[in-house]
Amino acid sequence: MAVKDPTAVERANLLNMAKLSIKGLIESALSFGRTLDSDYPPLQQFFVVMEHCLKHGLKVRKSFLSYNKTIWGPLELVEKLYPEAEEIAASVRDLPGLKTPLGRARAWLRLALMQKKMADYLRCLIIQRDLLSEFYEYHALMMEEEGAVIVGLLVGLNVIDANLCVKGEDLDSQVGVIDFSMYLKNEDDIGSKERNVQIAAILDQKNYVEELNRQLNSTVSSLHARVDSLEKSNTKLIEELAIAKNNIIKLQEENHQLRSENTLILMKTQHHLEVTKVDVEAELQTYRHSRQGLDEMYNEARRQLREESQLRQDIENELMVQVSMKHEIELAMKLLEKDIHEKQDTLIGLRQQLDEVKAINIEMYQKLQVSDDAMKEKNEIVSRLEDKTNQITATMKQLEQSDKDLLTQTRTIAMSFVKCASNEAQHQYKLVKDISF
């Protein structure tokens, strides 16, 4: 005899137990009134069987303290695949009494049954087998065809109305043990086989009608949405068509008006061109006569500019000498920093004046090319430059005199420091000599 695969046997046993539990739950619910609570034994056994089915082939995950197997991981993945499952996942996380992932998974199964969406949620999960491979082994029930069969059987639970209190129930510490005595057949069960077949046929018809009604509702809602969007787009298109027609009429009128204006402008421009042609010839003659005088004026201005640039270069050289002397004084006398800062301010003012002189020279160069009036302004600017250069030379002389005074003061201060230091050294020498005696 061929040896059977133990995992295949486990899957077959779990599938048979799921069939028995779902069938027993539906039959008992029909006789009981179809509204069930948490204490109903067939309902409790159904959750135990579902828990064993979801745990089959689950990979062992290493946690912080130990190794564990939990079905909350794949069930938590449903909210990413099915947007309507976000509400149930958030409700499970907000429950205050749950502390373990297994308790959250049990609460999730109970809420999914109350919503009548357990089959839809698990169908989305088994379709994405590449994502389930992170949680299950390749031979697990959820990875094989048995998982799809169980999901199909769960559709029949939509005929059941469950009223479960999840908030106050202790789901973390429950022990999931399958009670096989509930599924053992007796003679009464065999006698009621025809009744069970009729009930199964009725339930299948009801499930088919509910599923068909759900699909029809979804198609009707989508068709209503499309009709609304088409009506809105139609009204928009009608309004845009009317606006476009009005714009076309306006553009035709503007086109006719622009053509008439274009002909008038063309006639005016031709007349204007004839007039301007005569004016241009007269201006050319006057320009030729005036160009000779402008060349002479340009040569004279260029000569004056060279002289002024040479003068500016001499002033800059003198200023560089003064700046070097200033730096030597700063290094020699740290005690007179206040006076030196004042001299630096004056030197900065002189540099600004020199920059003004440069700007005025550039301005003069530009104005020399304009006309005779520019030459008059140039002469005035030259006179102002001469005044400023005289002022600069006067200030430079004052700076030289002040620098000489500072040098004499520093020398006297240095001599006084040297005398004081020598006197202090002689005094200390005498004290040491007296102490040695």
From the structure above, extract its key features.
437 residues, mainly alpha, two-stranded parallel sheet, two-stranded antiparallel ribbon, 13 helices, 4 strands, elongated
Beta-strand percentage range: under 5%
Are there runs of 5+ residues with pLDDT below 50, and where? Answer: none
Q: Topology as H/E string? A: HEHEEHHHHHHHEHHHH
Give the number of DSSP strands.
4
Average pLDDT works out at 81
The rough form would be described as: elongated
Report the end-to-end length measured between terminal Cα atoms. 127 Å
Radius of gyration: 53 Å
Which strands sit side by side, in order, in the main sheet? 1-4
Number of helices: 13
Q: Structural class from helices and strands?
A: mainly alpha
Helicity level:
over 70%
Profile the largest sheet: 2 strands, parallel
Describe the structure.
This protein has 437 residues and is an all-alpha fold. Helix content is 78%, strand content 2%. It contains 13 helices and 4 strands. It has helices at residues 6-32, 41-55, 72-76, 78-81, 86-94, 101-115, 118-127, 129-132, 145-154, 187-191, 193-332, 337-367, 372-436; strands at residues 35-36, 61-62, 67-68, 161-162. The strands form 2 sheets. A two-stranded parallel sheet has the order 1-4. A hairpin with a 4-residue loop joins strand 2 and strand 3. The mean pLDDT is 81.
Please give the structural blueprint:
Elements: H1 6-32, E1 35-36, H2 41-55, E2 61-62, E3 67-68, H3 72-76, H4 78-81, H5 86-94, H6 101-115, H7 118-127, H8 129-132, H9 145-154, E4 161-162, H10 187-191, H11 193-332, H12 337-367, H13 372-436
Parallel strand pairs: 1-4
Antiparallel strand pairs: 2-3
